[in-house]
């Protein structure tokens, strides 16, 4: 599955969390098998540990060919929720998805195979 990192995701999240992991570590952890929990198809939440720190992610899967990260936060971040629940955060996730899809439409992304 190819991983698509959009400009907005990189600026908003990857740059912010660069003190915890590199972009390469992030890509590698997305490639590994993990506990993807369906939120509301095609959105999944992912629990992952990088360098002994736990994170929560929301990803979008397109045609099972592309994995597109939408959101990432520290597990303990109260602003970002310890447990991502679709009903509670649907608007936030869909707003972020819209911005990410705009980046893709405007060719502001990188693809990792």
In short:
Helices cover 33% and strands 37% of the residues.
Structure report:
The chain is α+β, with helices and mostly antiparallel strands. The chain contains three helices and six strands. It has one domain (2-112).
Unreliable stretches = none
Total strands: the figure is 6
Shape: globular
Order of helices and strands: EHHEEEEHE
**Which class best fits the helix and strand makeup?**
alpha+beta
Distance between the termini: 7 Å
Question: For the CA atoms, what is the radius of gyration?
Answer: 13 Å
Give the rounded overall mean pLDDT.
84
Helices and strands in order, then pairings?
Elements lengths: L1 E5 H8 L8 H9 L3 E6 L2 E8 L2 E10 L3 E9 L11 H20 L3 E4 L1
Parallel strand pairs: 1-5
Antiparallel strand pairs: 1-6, 2-3, 3-4, 4-5
What characteristics describe this protein?
alpha+beta; 33% helix; 3 helices; 113 residues; globular; six-stranded mixed sheet
């Amino acid at each position: 599955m190819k991983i698509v990192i959009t400009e907005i995701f990189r600026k908003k999240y990857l740059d912010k969390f660069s003190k915890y992991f590199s972009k390469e570590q992030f890509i590698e952890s997305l490639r590994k098998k993990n506990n993807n929990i369906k939120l509301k198809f095609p959105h999944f939440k992912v629990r992952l540990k990088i360098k002994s720190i736990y994170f929560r992610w929301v990803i979008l899967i397109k045609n099972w060919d592309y994995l597109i990260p939408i959101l990432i936060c520290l597990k303990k971040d109260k602003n970002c929720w310890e447990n991502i629940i679709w009903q509670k955060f649907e608007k936030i996730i869909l707003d972020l998805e819209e911005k990410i899809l705009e980046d893709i439409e405007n060719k502001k992304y990188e693809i990792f195979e």
